[in-house]
Every structure is written in C-alpha cells, then in structure tokens.
Batch of 2 targets.
Target 1
Amino acid sequence: MSVLHAIFQPGLFSNSSVQDAAVLGAVVALVCAPVGVFTVVRGQSFAGHAFADVTATGGSAAFLLGVSPLLGFVVMALAGASATELLGAERQRGRDLVTGVVLGAGLGLSALLLYLTTTTQSTTGAAVTVLFGSIFAVSTSTLPLVIGFGASALFLVGLVYRPLLLSSINPDLASAQGLGRRVVGLAYMVALALSVALSALTIGAILSTALLIGPAAAALRLAKSPGRAIAWAALIGVAATWAGIVLAYDSYNWPPAQQGWPVSFFVVSLVLAAYLLAQLTGRRARRA
Amino acid sequence: MPSGLFSGFMVSTWLQGSIMAVVAGAVGFFVVLRGSSFEAHAIPQGAFTGAAGAALIGANTLLGVGTFSLLGVVAIARWGRRGQHDVVTALWLVTLLGIGSLFLSLSTEYADQTFSLLFGEPLAVSSSDLLPTALLGAGCITVVIVLFRPLMLSSIAPELASARGIRPARVEVLFLLAVGVVTTMALPVVGALLVFSLMIGPPATARFVTDRPVRAMAISGVLGLVTVWVSITASFWSNWPIGFFVGTFAFVWYVMGRCVARWRTRPRPVAPLELAGAGSR
C-alpha cells in the first residue's frame, strides 16, 4: 500500500492538469500507433524526423503571434508534407543535402522567432516548451482541437488502410493493380503530418519522433500482423506517456531542486526502454 | 562600426569563429562527398547532452562537448551502418536530447542555457578556450591534408582504395574524428542544431560551382568564413540569435549554388557541327 502511495502521490488523480495531460497523451499515442506503424514499414522515419524539426518553426511563430501552438505545429507540418510530396516525386540525388539545408534554415528561423517572443512578451521558456514540450502546460481548451485533428488522422488512415498496407509492403503490386497511388500517398502524408504535430505538442518538436516511431518500431518486433502491431503500438505509447506523467508528478519531490524533472525526458526514455526490451524479446523468440 | 565589435572579449570570438569556419569548410567538403550528412547531423545533436551536462556540473563546455562528440564517434564507428540504423539511431538521438533537457532543467538557468546551446551564443568563447581550439583546428587540418588522397579515393572509388592498401575502416574513423572536432569547436558558438548547416551549406554550394576538389575546398572555406563573419557581426548588432544567420546563409548559398549549376549546364545555342559534343555534360 505504501509503495502504491509512493508511486501515485496524493493529489495525482484529482489534479486537473494531470487529467488533461492523461487525455492528451492517450489520444496522441492512439493516433500515432497506426501512422507510426506505416511510417516504419514504409521506411519513412526520416521524413517523420524532418517534419518534426520543421514544425518547431510553426510552434515558435504561434508563440510569437499568441495563437495556440498546436495550430502552428499543424500548419507547418502540413506545409512540410506538401513540400515533400512535391519534391519527393523526382527523388533526385543528394536529397538529404536539400533536406538538411532546408531544416537548418527552418531551425534558424525558429531561433529568431523564439528570440523575438522572449523580447516582446517577456515570457521565458517558450523555447523549452516548443522544442522539448510540456504536456502539463497544454490548456484544456486545446483538447477538443487535439481530438478533432487526431480523429481526422485516424479517419484518413482508416479510409485508405488496405491500399496503404498493400503499397507499403509491395509497391509494385499496388501500382500494377492501378490503385490511386497518388491519393493513397497524399492521405498518408496528411495523416503523418497531423500525427507529428500532435506528438510535437505533447513532447516537443525535436523529441516528437520518439512518440511517432518508437512504439511502432517496438510493436513491429513483437507482432507479425499489421493489426496486432498497431494494437501493441497503441498500448506501448499510452503506457509510456501515462507512466511518464506519473513519474514527472512524483519528481517534484526529487533532488536536487524539487522543481520537477521534464515529462518529455521520462516519456522518451521509456519509449527507448520499451524498444530495447522488445528487441530483446523478439530476438529470444526467434532463437527459440 | 559600432564600438565593441572588435574589443577585447570579441577578439576570441572572431579568432575561434574564423578557425572553425575554415576547418568546417575543409571537413564539410568530405561530408558532402561521402554522403555523410547523417553523421554530421547526429554527432552535434548527441554532443548537446555533453554541453548540457557540463553546464549542470559547472565544467568547461568545450570539455563536455568534446567528450560527447568522441563518444558519438566511437558509437557510430562501432554500431553504425549495420542495417536498420534508421529507427534505432533516431530513438537514441532523441533520448540524448531528452537527457540534455533534463540536465538543463536541473541546473539553474534553464531557459537561457537551453536557447544558447541549441541556437548559438557568439560570446560563449572565452580566451582560455582559444589555445585548445587552435590546436584542435590545426590537428584537424593536418589530418585532412595527410589523408587527402586516401579520403578522396575511398570516397569516390572504395574498391580501388582497398586495392591500393588503404583501410576504409581506419579512414572512416579518422574522418568521423574530424567531424567530432568541428562539432566541438562550433557547437558553443553556432548551437547544436546549426553546426550541421555550417558543415554542409558552404561545401554543398562549392560543389555546384566547381568540380575540382582543392578549388571546391577553398571556395567552401571562403563561404564558411563569410558566413561566420557576417553572422557574428549581424548577431552583435541586432542581438538576434547567431543560429538564425548561419541557417539562413547556408540556405541562401545553396540556392545560389543551384542557380550557378543550372547556368553552367544551360543548353547553349550551338552550330550544327558542335552538336555531337553538346550532350556530354
């Protein structure tokens, strides 16, 4: 009993920002599960990572303009998705150089926007919130928006689930069957952009890759069928965010300063731990 | 010229900035040639944790960044390129950044420190860092000069290189070490997220302008110097973060380089007799 008390500190369940954080974390983990599984299977983790870094610019602009950071993240992620879709078609050599140079420009721009935010609005910590996130700082009024965007992403993935699966596993067969590959690809890209934006809101722009691809990569080591992998990914994602929230709440009593450790640190570490554990289990299962 | 731009405490910034621009230009040339932009992206992000750790325990930033760059080099040399590095490395990198944010949140000046380590701080250079920086830079340039032929050969024709008795693995480790040294010098000044821009922007541009390696290196060094000098000046004047200028410059150079490349390879009006040679480039 005392152990339970030590883990679930008094006031944990009645705290309203903890409740909001738990809802937000669960929604985002559920949305990221199917999108993340497709991202890993299609080998597009790098695209996810690149979007995530670019969304920082949108989040910073939102802070400067005083609108919800979620809107900034979503707009910028969608812009990144359309740019990738337009440029990606030609698949030119040296694409990672272009991506890198554009990413650098985007990150530099977010540095400027964040600097301007701190000088004009006398708020410090915008940089930390945009880049490393703070799930406790998300306001209750953002939640309906989060659920709306999340539902749209899930709807899009559900709509093109079969053709998307086929084109992810066997692109040649899918194009031979004359599916609207462009349409399927576009629907997936929009869903990916929305998931990246939600993940950026939850654990920060430059850490958001963890929530998107981490649980999915772990799940693919544990499950063979796509449906099961999505279920595992959702489970791992929700578990990691909730455990992260609980640990962060506990950490207010921890050394050195009793000011709490960052939630995103816990979530990201737990996701990595889950992945390593899954890899170990998967390897042992294969050996047996 | 506003007063103070060249005053005492700025001298070390100018010196370190110039050394790092030249070294980054030379090493960056090989980053672009070998297609190692992933390594050039990963090592600075991992080194951010070292800088944050140094800030937490009050150690020298250069020491923290150097240690973690070295660890990053060892990790990539040991475990890199063994298939599916995509997902695993991304997760490790993100976790390292998360640990860095933890270190900074435990130290006192959370927001300020985070900002300057990620986006750069031209005044981060102290005069006591100059000697180690100069030595590291000189060592790095020596490595590039000594290894010039093996590096070129193993980048362009790996089979030929191993036939000549060059060990690709050893060359690769030395090359990664050079990337680590550039990271160590540049991270405190231009920030963990923008070292990459400094390392690939100028050389990628130079490659559009010329095909000769030595000339490309020289152009990339000059572009790097211009980037760093203008960025330091502009940041000093406007007080805006130096990372913004570095990232924007890298982008502008790259776009200009592409335009030059297009102009160089433009279809020229040719006399009928010349037509046979027109498609060669």
Target 2
Amino acid sequence: MRFSTLVLKNLVRQRVRTLLTILGIGVGITTVVALGAITGGLKAMASDLMRVGGADFMVAQKGASDLSFSTVSEAEERAVRETPGVEQTLGVLLHYSRVGSNPFFVTFGVRAEELRASPPALVEGRLLAAGAPREALLGSDASTRLAATVGGTVTIEETDFRVVGIYRTGSVAEDGGAYAPLDTVQRLARKRDAVTAVYVTAEPGADAAALAGRIEEENPELTSVSTLGDYGDVDQGMKFLDAGNVAISVLAVLLGGIGVMNTMIMSVFERTREIGILRAVGWSGRRIVRMVLGESLLLCLVAGVLGLGLGWLAAQAVAQIPSVESFLRPEFSSELVLRALLVAVGVALAGAAYPAVRAVRLLPVEALRHE
Amino acid sequence: MSRPPAIKVAGVEKSFDAGRIRALRGMDLDVGEREFVALTGPSGCGKSTLLHLIAALDQPDAGTIEVGGHELSTRRDLNHYRARHVGLVFQLHNLLPSLSAAENVQVPMFEGGRSAHERRGRADELLALVGLERRHRNRPAELSGGERQRVAIARALANDPPILLADEPTGSLDSKAGAQILELLESLRERRGLTLLIVSHDERIAARADRIVRMLDGRKVGEDLRTFPRTPSVRPPMSPRAEETTIGGDRQGGFR
C-alpha cells in the first residue's frame, strides 16, 4: 500500500461528504475560471482596440472613465501626427450602437486615406473610397450575423451604409463591427472635429516607448497606451472589472476554504481515535500532517479540475448569449489554468492547516480514549 | 557485567483530573529480556496506565522508565521508539476499518523506511505467521474477533520490535479465540525472542507467564515467579532462584 492509497481511502470512505465538498470548492473555482475567462476576453478585446491598424501604440484622452468617452481634438491629432519619429497615424472615432442583435456594435470612424496606409485584411471587395460618406467595410463576423455581403446595405442608427468590402483581423471588436467614414460617424456620435484615439506607428528604427513619452510630454491632456496596464488610464471600467473579478474570486475562494476546513475538521474529529492508533504505532506528527494535507490537496485538486471544466462550460455558455457573442470571446490562458490550480492548492492548505495542527497536538493516549 | 533489564520502571507516579485520580503511586517494575510478565490487578489499579507510559503514549508525572537502557523522558525520538522498539496490542484490536488486513499490518511500516513492495511482502509474511495468509484482503468488519486480534498482533510486529506490550489481548474474545491468541503470543515470543508484557485479568495468561506482577491502587503489591522458566533463554532482571516462588503475593508454587 502506498501512502497516497491511504489518503485516497480516507476520502472514499466518506463518499457523500467528499463529493459535496468537491462540488462546493468546484463551484468556487468555476466562478474564478469563468470570471477569469470572461475578463480575459474583455481584456483581449481591449488589447485588440489598442492595436487597430497594427499601430505601435494608441494615444487617447488622459483620465477618461471609458475609452468611448475619450476625446482627442483634431488639433491634438495633428500635433501627434507632426511629432518627429511618427511615421503615420490613424485617427479613429469609436462609436457603439445596437446593430442587429449586437448591443455593442463598434463602428470605427476613419479617414479613407489614413485607412489605406494600414488597412485591415480584406476577404472580399475593396477599401473605403475617399469622399463617399455612406460606404462601410464590414467585419467578417458582423457580415455573417447581419447576413450582409458586398453590395448589400447595413443600417447603423437609421443611417444606411453600402457594404463595399468584408475584412477579417482576428479581433472580436473589429470583426464584429465596421469601418465607416469619419465624418459620417462623427455626425452619428455627435462628436464634431474629434476622434476617440489616435493610433500611432513609429518610423522604422524609432524607439516607440520614447516616442510615446515625447507625445505625452508635449500634449499633457493625452496619454499613450501600449500595454493592458496602461489601458486603465483611459478606461476605468477595466479597473472596475478587475476589482470585481478579484472580489468575487476572493469570496468564492473563502467560501471554498471554509468548506474544506469544515470537511477536514469533521474528518479529523471523527478519526481522533484512529489518529491515536497511528501515533501509537509510531507515526510522526509530520506524517499525520502529510496525511491530512494530502487528503485536503487531493480533494481540492479534483475540485480544481472540475472547476476548470465547469468554468470553461460556463464561460462558453455566456459567450453563446446572442447579445454577448458579438463582443466577447472567452480567453482561456495557461495563466488562468495555473491560477485556478493555485487557488485549489491555496484553499487546500488554508482549509487543512487547523485540522492538521489539531491532529498533531492530540496526545496519543487521549486520542485512543476518544469514542 | 549484567545486561540491563529490557524495561525498568522506577518510582513512577501518574495522576489524572488535576491530581484527583492517582493512577500510579511510586510504581516499580523490572522486566528482563525475553521475559514474559503478566500484569494483573483489579480494574482501575493502574495496569493500563503503566502500559501506556511504557509505550510512550503518555508521560509520567514523576519517576523514570528505561527501555533498552534508555530513559524515555530523555528520548527526543518517541515516534521512532513507538515504531521500532515496542509493539502494542490493544483489547479492542484498534484496526483501521477502511483498510484490509494486509494494509493494516503495513501502517506502522511507513515509518520503517521500507518500499511499498517491501511493505506488502512483509505484511503477507506476518499474516502468514499469525495464520491469516488467506485473509489478507479482508477488512476488519469481515474478520472474526480472534482474526482481528491476530491482525493486530501482526501489525504490532511490523517493524520487528524486541518488546511486545499487550493490553487485555484476550479481553474481548471468547475462550476458544482467547486461548488461540495466547498460544500465538507464546509461540511468537519463543520463535522471535520477544519480551512480553501483558496486562490481563485472564488467569490463563497469568498461568503461562514467567512472572506475575500484581497491582493494587497504583502500586505493585506482589510478584509470583514461575518455578522453572518456560524458556531457557529468559533472563529475569532480579536473578530469581527457582525456589523463590512468591514475592509479597499470596499465590503459591509454580505454574503448569
């Protein structure tokens, strides 16, 4: 018999309790995983928005509560464009509106000539023509959902656009939205002479970070965003999302930890006499601790794997909701899997610590007298 | 130079319930190597308490206990002592219910540095020694009382200890099973050269012991020595003469 066999048998003998505990912790880890995958998907979308047109970084209004509230004036945009070291810029006005079943359809208002310098990959049709206010390039996902093809029409806030091309970039937000002429989108968004952000591509060989710093220095009202960490500077929503994610995860883990502690305390208490027997036949306190922690770890690792599976299913289910599927693609990273397993191990160690200490502190003779 | 006794208990005191219950009051006892000593006395006289102290399951309030020439209170490795130096058999077998007979026997071996393969082989060997080679997969609930006690004896011998301590090993068994366990203990003692200290009310055990130590109210009140040692290898610690049949006791003559 291996030590692990003994640990397993101790858990199997209380099947119902073990299963309920696994389920309890599993639900907690499901929450961590599902929230993590959804948050990861939203962050991926944010990350995509930072790199529209393959830019090195994005410049937006400093301190905006949400990226869609960012306003960069044409004068500021021009100042950015004229900064030494900038090869090209793409001023984009992001406009969110309900189109079809998608409540967060993103229309990227761009100048046709700027888009031509860094165009999205066309699947069909052509790019926007200069001076054609009612043309639109449609993302491949939007094209599928709206059943709109080249030559067809897409209506955004009661304005009809003729679809002249279909593109695919791999970005959920871009592929689920459309590119349209900046002037028209400014009118739809009621934002005259302004864009949401300017996407900057540095000259070959130029230091993009130094360039971003120079732009910030020369334009105190603007901030550059090149990493997800910077994104919070222009979108407080991401910070709230992260905070909410952490709070719910901590709560889920705490509840899971209490469940494990309850199970392990019950288990140790019920087996007080057995622990006395183990001490009587020479088991060290360290081995008793290993046994209790081993049971808890096994319990939590099984719950961790279960939580990973259920979390994946839950996030996929959320992503299937019609109003969500167009802007959210859950992200399951190796970091998320590692986090879930670390949470499981953390819950196991925290939940088993007190029962293990209690088991070791028992005098063998007292434990043997326990009925 | 004479060898030290296997077990030497001197002036041991033990109280419970904040001193209200005095279980042992200056208890003295020497047990020689390979000697078979029966510890008898009425319930509550301190027999089991003394056995627990010798097994290092508890600590005395005063006095000393030496086992194999080493005083227990100075040992830092009491787990090692319990695992390797003494085997313990309880009245109610105390087997782990979720484990098979063979797995129960393997439990003490986790502290013995044996591999899983070695543990399995040794458990099979010990179960064969106690006559349970065909029952190694059965759980305690599937065994008779006598069989459970045999498994408990096999477990006590798992790490080959020189001393076997037994607390009423036949107390929960019918007379036939009790007699078989007693025979097994005697046989093991002879074949493996064990020192045997048994707490018992069972007259049959007392009748087969090399020496009977009688206790009352936490003290030794008498000793009966066998007229002729049952095994020539026995080395009683008090250089007894065969004629010294009774020391401070009321029992006359030898046994069997």
